[in-house]
Amino acid sequence: MLEDLTTAASSATAWPAAYPEGYAVVDVETTGLARDDRIISAAVYRLDARGEVEDHWYTLVNPERDPGPVWIHGLTSEALEDAPLFPDIAEEFSDRLADRVLVAHNAVFDWQMIAREFARARREAPVRQRLCTIALSKELGLPLPNHKLESLAAHFGVVQQRAHHALDDARVLAEAFRPSLRAAAAGGVRLPLHECRPLTEWTDRAAGPRIGHQPGGYGGYRPGSWRPSRKRPACPYPNPGRYEEGRPLKQGMRVAFSGDTSVERELLEDRATEAGLHVATSLSRLTSLLVTNDPDSGTSKVVKARQFGTPVVDEAAFGQLLRDVEPASEG
Predict the structure, then answer these.
(1) Helix (H) and strand (E) counts for the chain?
(2) Partners of residue 250 on adjacent β-strands
(3) What is the model's pTM?
């Protein structure tokens, strides 16, 4: 059915008049997920109104700080040393985005990182609307096992060559977005467009924090703030055991959080749940991983993690690990 809709929309049939006239498919790799983290590479595929590629662009960016989880994105300090600073590429980046809808996988993250970089450079990102391909896949009712980019790509037969490389991720997303857009047009689906409000000023609250030592409380979650508990659905996968450094997370792993987080805590928990992880409210010998930005604190979860030998990672590293959660074992 979806193939029929895509074919129909790509023919000479009427195109929805309300649809945008152009898109900028974007992917950025970053030093982490917090508000003071930086972009280290960026790619933009410009598409016309019907999703056809017009051109593409890629650049490295010197973040002037620790590059973060190198084991994820592969960009070392040495590789970024001679890269341009963001203010040096801001004009070109701006030209690539101008008068287009920003398209990304988990678009709110890419948009926030881009808006902050432009604000640091005392410029304004020329983006007024964004479209998240996760939201679009939900609108289309695509039968995906999860919301990972690789699952969307596999659904449309797009082959990924270098995961977590901004240029290849943007290419993959552009190729998967085209049939999604055409299916939406053929089915009369309203695109899930959201307004973007560029930042007009920016002040870094910490000068170059190293990965794993990021101050807490930068996001919507404030120290001491009260959050009502939410009942989550039971994780459908068995616990495969503890997380091992250098290896991916696996569906069914029990993950606990401790302390303040830069990204809203519930958003982190929602991402973990959607990836197939079990979000645990307490820590036990069965806990696979503890996520905390302050491993030296004396919270009960941190103390128990030491006693049980539970692996510990910081929030930024956990966010990167969420991009590649291994499927649960069959049977």
Answers:
(1) 11, 10
(2) 326
(3) 0.64
